[in-house]
Amino acid sequence: MALILSGPVLADPVRLDDLFDQLKTADAEQAEKLERDILLEWSKTGSPAFDLLLERGGEAMAAGDFPTAIEHLTALIDHDPEFAEGYNARATAYYMAGEIGPSIADIRKTLSLNPRHFGAMMGFAMILEELEKPDEALEVYKAALAIHPHLSGVSEAIERLETAKSGQGI
Fold first, then answer.
1. Could you report the per-residue pLDDT of 134-152, keeping only the tens digit for each?
2. pLDDT (tens digit, 9 = 90+) per residue, 41-66?
3. d(CA 105, CA 111)
4. 30-52: string of b/e by CB count within 10 Å (b at 16+)?
5. Whole-angstrom Cα distance, residue 5 to residue 98?
């Protein structure tokens, strides 16, 4: 009988690079699967305790309990300040709680730790639009689209902003 020991499961940077390479040339259907695989890689904390904090934060968000979500995700970040997905999840919770400043701060931290985080870019661009900063939003949407050519809603957002910028009605 063999004993198999396994360590913590962390995101595999080589696998992520491969997934992103595939994403650039994928069709829409393939891109959906690749996106799910990337999100799965990003969610690997390497610790069952951290996994639980991330899970509880997500459950609290889904239940509309944003203060509890922020609490769980802050605990995760306190224990693992290099885990980008913790900041991204907390940015979402802050945004949903109406706390735009902290949300932007967490998006910036997410992107400093994971510059390819197309979800954080998408959220940031949406916030920039809400703050009536269409030029900045357009720039961020385009950056997200360069990473993920089939990211849902981004092409439409770019078209909408470019049309508005050119002075044409939609």
1. 999 999 999 999 999 999 9
2. 999 999 999 999 999 999 999 999 99
3. 10
4. ebeebbebbeebbbbbebeebbe
5. 44
